Protein 1
Amino acid sequence: MRRIRIFDTTLRDGEQSPGASMNVEEKIQLARQLSRLGVDVIEAGFAFSSKSDFEAIKAIASEVEGSIICSLARAKEDDINRAWESIRNASKRRIHTFHSTSDIHLKHQFRVTREEALQRSVDMVGMARSLAEDVEFSPMDATRTDLNYLCEVVEAVIEAGASTVNIPDTVGYAIPGEFGTLIKALFKKVPNIDQATISVHCHNDLGLAVANSLSAILNGAGQVECTINGIGERAGNCSLEEVAMSLRTRKDIFPADTGIKTEEIIRTSRLVTKITGMYVQPNKAIVGANAFAHESGIHQDGLLKEKSTYEIIKPSDIGLHKTQFVLGRHSGRHAFKTRLGELGFNLSEDELNKAFDRFKNLADHKKEIFDEDIEALVSEESISVSDEIYRLIDIRITSGISSERSAFVKLKIDGEVVEKKELGDGPVDAAYRAVASMTGTEYLKLMKFEIKSITGGTDALGEVMITLEDDGDVIRGTGSDTDIIIAAVRAQLNALNKLEIRKRKAL
Ligand code: KIV
Ligand code: ZN
């Protein structure tokens, strides 16, 4: 069995998805989950790009154990020094430096010759090696680079000390057979290639990132760079869950293992959705809501007789457990706590009390409470009672085609009860205006508002996810309730609490 290394770049290339920026706490939370998932390398960010990226990498390097923590740097002295500073506290650390090699990039973007690009790459790998033992180099836009020149660069950077050489399909241009042939050619033509791990980094512009990565593995690649849910620059990156499950499901084609604990996939995917505010399309392979939904009568008939007729992956392999009616109005605190434990949540007493109150309230409105409902309730409870500044006490709305659309909202702000009525285009608009006016946050822009139902049925929990913008900074909030107006206000308060807590901490 070959061992394929999984290099996750959700925190770096994934964060380059439009609107997917994450704050430092969110990055640490995700890095912890990536380590639990068993990724070999976490690319935690691009240290030189911003102070907050630097701080996030540094915090991850000190707090997250298990995976190698990697920091990206252009082939420049200042970038490499900054990358090193960001990871030096990690127990396992890597500097990843890159320089373009295609004539298109060298001529039009960097205005340097091939010789100059080669020399800079070698010098910067050497410099990175003087700081860190583990150095990765990427010849950017490799798939549009002249093959002989690419071989020359790969050989030279290995000679200079790169222990991993990553072949990026930066613009998602390659086709699987062609990309496999490129990797094979490198193995044939580069004399010292056995002294490094060959990695691949595929973008999804033609929808081929996973296929290209698998083709590269068949031709000798030992590391795949990917992101959770396939998020990333433009059309995204190779999806981690798709590669991991392809390798696991088709052992006959790929006699290869990864260190991925596939049972953690769904939890990680949902965390990325929650943190980035980017929902996964329902038909997305492995983690989409329909990935295990069999609609056709013929398929259902086959499945009832024998699962293997239409099921190539067991939902439990990615951590999805059959939706079950678990708890209801008569369930007590102990049963609730036990189920939370089974679902992998470990709440403090304070968080548990708050979640249990919400659960009891939900049970008054909804007869059957499923695991998904509990997960939605708990993931919203990320703000502890002691930190909470704004709390929803009551809301009443009026709406209709011919009547006024208004909202009356009662909040507790720093322990004091405040109330306000506002008119709006609809009840959500009216309620948001009332909350904004009471909290003095009219200046925030609502960039995104998404709503979905957690389970089926008209009594289902509605989950609202919003993104607010505060002068370039984004804040996300989630809220759930069987009443979607209340869910919307909860999401708004969740975001406002995060913003206010962050502001008070900064003082
Ligand atoms: O797509 C790309 O080429 C990159 C490099 C920095 C590896 O993200
Ligand atoms: Zn990339």
Note: The pocket of 3-methyl-2-oxobutanoic acid (ligand 1) is lined by residues 13, 98, 138, 140, 166, 168, 170, 201, 203 (CB under 6 Å).
Protein 2
Amino acid sequence: MPWNEEFECMPVGKLQKFQLEKLKETAAWVYAKIPFYKQKFDEQGITPDDIKNLEDVAKLPMTVKNDLRDNYPFGLCAVPLKEVVRVHASSGTTGKPITGPYTKEDLAQWTECMCRNIWAAGIRKEDVVQNAYGHGLFTGGLGFHQAVTAMDCTVVPTSAGMTERQITLLQDFGSNVLFCTPSYALTIAERAEEMKVDIRSLPVRVGVFGAEPWTVQMRQEIEERMGIKAQEAYGLTELCGPGVAYDAADQNGLYINEDHFLAEVVDPQTLEPLPLGEKGELIFTSLQRRAMPMIRYRTKDITRLWREPGHNGRTFVRMDKIYGRSDDMLIISGVNVFPSQIEALLLEIEEVEPQYRLIVRKKGYLDQLIVQVEGKSEVYEAGDKRRYEIEGKIAAHIKGMLGISVEVELVEAKFIARSEGKALRVVDERPKQLR
Ligand code: DLL
């Protein structure tokens, strides 16, 4: 399956007409099939017939993660289970998991959306792909698997973990494509260095990374360390998994599969829609899903959207790399800070490794941020004086760029647990009621 030129390059007016038609269909579908949505529409005094243009999406009620938890496992499913051919789920860190059921058509559409992502990364039938996303309930493994299978690539489904074996298989099979989270890509690169394997000289030439926030600086770090191009995948279980948005060879923003997902950006406090270009919370309405459509789903992901002629004639609206999640935003000395801003600054310091953790504590009434980052071994081993010097340098850099005072702890190699999936970057030690 190649890319979908018809939709990916569709003139915007025609695309928006298509979106409107699908939005009306989806609203009618959820209103008829899902009591939860019927009730929400009724409470808001709106029916599917009130949707006359795309902006009318703003009249529809929003859906949040708790709605999915409250209706666990299949309360938001619009079809009987016998029409569901797959169920994925995401564990989340608190509470019940949320489910992602698919009809046969949903699955085919998801595969097609993923093929666009993989094609845009320059991957073709001849390629040998090592898929190190977790296989199972997580949408990453199977989502990528089914698409490369549809594209007739050679797929090696290693799943995540057993890092030494990942490296040995990369060597033995000569895979030239790697799929995993960006933090796992770093773990693989580091382990290869320890195994004295020159990963840059292996045939791997491109990776498709996603499932967690990572900065442009982190992308460059991975590209340099592995000698590859690092492309991106974005998505969430609630909408299908990966396949919602992806970048192309120009690595200039992620194209949103707009024939399937209608994107809005809203002010996370007032929930008012924001114009293109402004930073806010990303909201999605699925346009073609049948088993579990989503109406104005609040992703909590912060980004901005823009539209301009794209790579190879693509017309889809683009989103910036995710800056962070609104629930990961820290308020330090009155300044809003995303972990990604700290990541970008740490990666500018040559004496440290790209392995860090942010610890948030309460000190009196104020939040206190402790930045733990691994020093390069020669720096860490040079003794206390050198360590204090680097800690001071990092703190001053952060103060200079973000205006906040943080405590920096240079820690030794391997102090920070290595990730095989989504990295844990923030440890919140504040009492729950004070967060
Ligand atoms: O992480 C789906 C996925 C799998 C995407 C493989 C890409 C690759 P969930 O586990 O439900 O689904 O987590 C969704 O992960 O709301 C974002 O906060 C974050 N996320 C996903 N992709 C990116 C990305 C999968 N490229 C949540 N950049 C989303 C930043 C991302 N954050």
Note: The CA atoms of residues 98 and 343 lie 29 Å apart.
Protein 3
Amino acid sequence: MHLFQSDYFATLGLADIRDKVEAHERLSFDDGVRLFRCPEPLAVGALAHRVRSRLHGDKTFYVVNRHVNYTNICVNGCVFCAYQREEGQSGGFVLTRDDVLTKLAAAALPPREVHIVGGCHPKLGLTYFEDILSAVHERYPDAVLKCFTAVEIAHFARLEGIAAREVLTRLKAAGLGMLAGGGAEIFAPEVRERLCPRKATADEWLSIHEEAHGLGLKTNATMLFGHIETIDDRVDHLVRLRESQDRGGGYTCFIPLPFLTKNSRLTIDNPLTGLEELKTIAVSRLLLDNIPHIKAYWVMLGVKQAQAALKFGADDFDGTVIEEKIGHEAGATSEQGLSRSELTDMIRGCGCTPVERDGFFNEV
Ligand code: V47
Ligand code: SF4
């Protein structure tokens, strides 16, 4: 008998959720909490894999991309962040436009996606970013420029004394194609207050993404989990994202980010288990019924866990990356970058079909 017709889900108290998944029905907040509380991660994974297979078959997407972090100097000082430096502190850096171009030129393959993000620097004005975007766009006209988080956009707007919408409009004119998904962390206000009190609020983060969608920009979204948040906080985060997507439809991909503890000022009592990571990816797939892609970000997960995630709802392996600083400062033990053949071999090794994509998830 097929697993979905068997008593397996009923014995775990998940028969009604299984039925909703089979009927393509939206899951409720309470369903999300029950999935997180289910003692059997494999059952949650099987449900998520069902949805992933329905959406994407055995395809797993990857992209030839390059990450560039333009500065690690940041006024926000989030308690979990191992990457940030204060202005004047040793180890702080700011790249010039030419540094950015040099880093991009050093990649073995021309990128189809350029991911540029950084700290909230107290002095870098909008012209610095327009200058970088125009230069990168001119050099790589076919690459999707997926740059800046909503937190950076809010910061640029505050520094310049202009509306976030104007910042987005100017950056779009300079070549911006998408916003990166970082900075969402956890939306629940009491957790956000403890983790990152100086950062844009959840409402600001969501409204900047919706402004971007209104301007025709796509965006990604993240959730940082495995620190001081509760199960309810994770479900709240996912449901708020789903509601935001209902309003505008511009989110392309969701990236669940497990908290890496090294060099962080945040100490936690119960570090995440590998199974808890996979279950969180699976619940994300199940609750976010209106976001097409779930990323197994191998940098934070590690490559083997990212492979496992492909059977727990994820369909994107991200990319070549080349040089990553945020996760590696926090103790990520993954490689700095992967070649195209390493990516495709890893995807095939899981029984999936590798599909190269651009930044917007168009197949190439
Ligand atoms: O916003 C910071 C997170 C994010 C830690 O949009 C940490 O396609 C784990 O958002 N442990 C930046 N995570 C990375 C990010 C991202 C990555 C890849 C693709 C995309 C995309 C977005 O990293 C930050 C924060 O949430 N982070 N410190 C840490 N110790
Ligand atoms: Fe700054 Fe981002 Fe680090 Fe927070 S997570 S301190 S905003 S670089």
Note: The mean pLDDT is 96.
